[in-house]
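User: What would this chain look like folded?
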Amino acid sequence: MTSPCDPSSPCLSPQVGQLIKEAAAKSNLKRVTLELGGKNPCIVFADSDLQLAVEETQKGAFFNQGQCCTAASRVFVEEQVYEEFVRRSVESAQSIVIGDPLDPRTSHGPQVSLLSSSPQSLLFIFFWSLSDRCLDSRADTVC
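Assistant: Here's the prediction, encoded as structure tokens.
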């Protein structure tokens, strides 16, 4: 089985998912559940403890160097606290130390690629501002 993915980084394209499904069907009909990780969201409301929200979203985004499919890479923030939340999040992310995992000052050890070893790449989190209109809308509304 060949993958349309770059072998240096993991991915699950629709083509690979189809191949896995077909292989399971042709064997002994094993049940297959695919981990379809991606843009896992966090939601921050205006009445939340903002510092705690920053800390927890940072954990979600950067756990395991942010290199796992469950990384919380989308953060929806209520409009009233959006600017302050983003400011604090950027400050927190900029304090992350990438380096030798045996160095006690290091927050993040080995990265999957040279590109992901730069502090700027750690700031690649999506922030959306939630307006009152959006909060009152149906769940399928894209904000």
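The CA atoms of residues 4 and 111 lie 22 Å apart. If you want, I can go into more detail on any region.
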